[in-house]
């Protein structure tokens, strides 16, 4: 069952592959650890600014992390 949005992400996978804790990522992009957890669980979609900050932190494009799927 879909959660009502078409945005999914690879944030948790990328973060874990690089050995980065939620707390470290949160501090780097200036949000709470809870926000990172909510992003990873699909409960929250990032603002465009936060998406850019996360992408820059990992040296990736937004589209490599956040995947928008049209119905």
TrEMBL record:
InterPro entries, per database record: Cro/C1-type_HTH, Lambda_DNA-bd_dom_sf
DNA-binding among keywords: yes
Keywords tagged on the record: DNA-binding
Gene Ontology molecular-function annotations: DNA binding
UniProt keyword Lyase, yes or no: no
Pfam family, one: HTH_3
The organism's place on the tree of life at top rank: Bacteria
Residue span(s) of domain HTH cro/C1-type: 11-65
PANTHER family, alphabetized: DNA-BIDING PHAGE PROTEIN, TRACRIPTIONAL REGULATORY PROTEIN-RELATED-RELATED
Name of this chain's protein: Putative transcriptional regulator
């Amino acid at each position: 069952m879909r959660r009502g949005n078409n945005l999914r992400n690879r944030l948790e996978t990328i973060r874990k592959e690089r050995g980065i804790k939620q707390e470290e990522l949160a501090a780097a992009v200036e949000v709470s650890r809870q926000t990172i957890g909510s992003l990873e669980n699909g409960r929250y979609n990032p603002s465009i600014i936060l998406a850019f900050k996360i992408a820059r932190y990992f040296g990736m494009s937004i589209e490599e992390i956040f995947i928008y799927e049209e119905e």
